[in-house]
Every structure is written in structure tokens, then in C-alpha cells.
Amino acid sequence: MPSPALLPHLSAAGAQLAQSTPALCLAFSDVPAEYAAAREDAALFEVTDRDAILVRGADAGGFLQRLLANRVSGLGPGQGNRTLLLSATGKVLADLDLAVIDEHTYQLSGAPGSAATLLELLERYIFTEDVTLEDISLTHVPLELCGPQAASVLERLLGPDSPDLPGEPHAFSELSDLPSLPGPLTITRLTVAGQSGFRLAGEQQAVGSLWQRLVECGARPAGFIARESLRVEAGRGRWGLDISDAIYPQEARLEEAFSLAKGCYTGQEVVAKIDAYEGLNKRLTTLTCDCDEPVPAGTRLFRSVAAGREADGPETWRDLGVVTTWAYSFAHDCGAVLAYVKRGHLEPGTVFRLGAGPQSATVAD
Predict the structure, then answer these.
(1) Centroid of chain to Cα 179
(2) Cβ contacts of 237 within 8 Å, gap of 6 or more
(3) Where in 103-194 does DSSP place strands (E)?
(4) Residue 321 pLDDT greater than 50, yes or no
């Protein structure tokens, strides 16, 4: 659900909200133009329902270093990364963005509705350590900006005397007392729906003014439909839809979110074995469809194989994958899906029957 402070600005921009829970901002006036802005200009997304927690204390860094799949040790204030919390069997329990605020304070940002589960998981590992956890989701109201002109929009927002924008992935800058801003603002460089972009987190009461200023500086409001098209085309999974506690990191193409070089962490041995022995059974993959109609999550992918060695033998169909997300692809001008496809069948151009057919899907280039 969008922040209440932002709703009047979304309404004024013509936002179409889903009649569901959560009430996603589906689109504004022109979905193809919203998609084009992300590809060619600058698109502005509402993500104010994203959850976040703070991890504080003298032992916070070491605590997270032992638990999270990506490195914490060696990162300084203003740095961060994408990281995972894994089970003992190496499967994904949480997909997170880590930010180092100072030596004893860390922020973990996750999908909407994830904070309560994350707090419960982390609390299991606190014994005598000086570590405290705080859910800040209600005051964490970020916006996201992406596209080749996103940096230019921010430069116009901040003014000529502003500091340089963060350059490295997941690096961030905390800005305050700038006359051009409606309040303090944290700018993080990161990937947004497969595109180069930024996350902008300010104060709750200022999020509406920040949205309006970004639009005035050239950003185009964009909704969930355009974002999903970009995400599916980029092959990036989403927590709760494509990524769950049934999935290994490599299956979901999450290599950027774990380290094979850091010290021990929960699930590391399994992740390392998969890497060493190429033990993947399936891989999240983008496929294009020969139809525009939505394909439900859970639809099976079948591939035709000849039974036996006889050229004229009866045709059989092998179940080789499952769809997790459908979106309309503006790049391919057709429907597209994310699906887990068994190894050995991932070559671009490989064709599958969708469910009972007759529609089909083809592994994208």
C-alpha cells in the first residue's frame, strides 16, 4: 500500500490502484510511455511499502557477518550490498539490501511485509551479543528512480553545489540541509527492475513533496505493470513470487548476493558445493510467449521428445519447468514469463508447450 502521505500526489498524477491487498500502483496514463521512460529517460516508481529494520550494537557487524551470505566485514559507512539470509540447507530465507550506517548501525531493507519474519529469524541467533533490532518500516518510505537520465534528474533536484552522486553499486549518500530538498534524503545507487537506478529514502512527511520535485525535474511516474515488464525482461526474480525458501541462490541467479570467499555463514557449505560441482537442477529464465494472454503462475512447461529410438515412435512430453511470473514484454511485443527451467534445456530458442497447450514459450536470447 502506498504511503498515505503520497496518495494525493499519486491521485493527481492519474494513478490506477489495484483493488486488492496490497493496493499496488498499477499504472498512470500511458504504460508504454512509462516503460519507455525507464529504457530511454527516467522513470519514477513508488515503493513506499518496502520494509526495513535497523541492527545496532557493538557486536552488530560481527553478528551479521556470521549470518548473511554476502560480506559485511570490510564495508564502511556509506557502503552496502545485496545479500541473503539462508537456511542451514542453503535455501533463501530473505533477499535483502544491506547498508552500513556507522560502525555499530546497519540497515536491512526487504520486500513489503518481510520485516516481522526477518526479525524472528535474526532474534534466534542473538544470545549474549550486544545486538538490538528495530523495525523502521512505518517510517521507511523510499522511492526508486531508473533510466539513462536518472542521474541528471537527481542533479537537477539537488542543485549545482550538491555532492557527487554515489558511484558504486549499493553505495549511498546521506544529505541534509540542502535548500532544494524537502528534508533529509538518503540516495542509494542500485539496480531497479534490471535498470541502473537509485533508491531515495526521506522522511515520511516529506515523501509527497519529494515525489513532486522529482517529477518537476523530469522524472516520469511509472507503475507496477511497466516495472514488471522490465523485471521479467531482465530475468530478475522477486521475493515471494519467483524467490522463496524452496529455492537455492544460484537457481534464482542471485550470485551478486552471496560470497564464496568470506568466512563461514549459515548455508555456505551447500552454496559452495553447488558452485564447485555445478549442482544446479534448474535456473530462473526468461521466455517469450506466442500469445498475449496472461499465463498463471504454476503453469508447467513441457517439451516434446521421441519415445525410444524409432523415428516414428509416439510423441511424449516431459515436464521440464514451471512459470513463476507473467508480464507483457514491450521489448519483444508479446507476453513473457519467468520460469524455472531444468538444466540441459536452457539454450536460447528452446520451445516449450505451456500447460495443456496449444500456446508455447521460447527461451529468450
Answers:
(1) 32
(2) 243, 252, 253, 254, 284, 324, 325, 338
(3) 105-110, 132-135, 143-146, 172-175, 185-192
(4) yes
Pick the CATH number of 7-48+141-233 from 1.10.260.40, 3.30.1360.120, 1.10.10.60, 3.40.47.10: 3.30.1360.120
- pLDDT per residue as tens digits for the range 121-147: 999 999 999 999 999 999 999 999 999
Residue 31, SS3 per DSSP: helix
| Amino acid (1-letter code) at residue 176 | S
Exposed e or buried b for every residue in 103-124, given b needs 16+ CB within 10 A? Answer: eeebbbbbbbebbeebbeebee
Measured distance CA(340)–CA(236) in Å, rounded: 12
Identify residue 350 by its one-letter amino acid code.
T
Measuring CA to CA, how many Å separate 90 from each of 65, 68, 85?
Answer: 16, 12, 9
Q: Which three-class secondary structure state does DSSP give residue 89?
A: coil
In whole angstroms, give the CA distance from residue 78 to residue 71. Answer: 15
Residues in the chain: 365
Say if pTM beats, i.e. exceeds, 0.85.
Answer: yes
Instruction: Kindly report, residue by residue over 73-131, the tens digit of the pLDDT.
Output: 999 999 999 999 999 999 999 999 999 999 999 999 999 999 999 999 999 999 999 99
β-sheet bridge partners, residue 173? 187
Which of the 8 DSSP states describes residue 246?
T
Structural Rg of the chain based on CA atoms:
22
Calculate ∠ Cα 72-78-83, nearest 5°. Answer: 35
Pairwise CA distance, residues 356 & 35, whole Å: 32
The shares of helix, strand and coil residues in the chain, as percent rounded to the nearest 5, are: 25, 35, 45
Q: What is the pLDDT of residue 307?
A: 43
Domain 51-139: give its CATH code.
Answer: 3.30.70.1400
Alpha helices in 57-172 (DSSP H): 60-67, 115-123, 150-158
Please report the sign of the dihedral spanned by the C-alpha atoms of residue 344, residue 346, residue 348, residue 353. Answer: positive
Cell of 215: 517529477
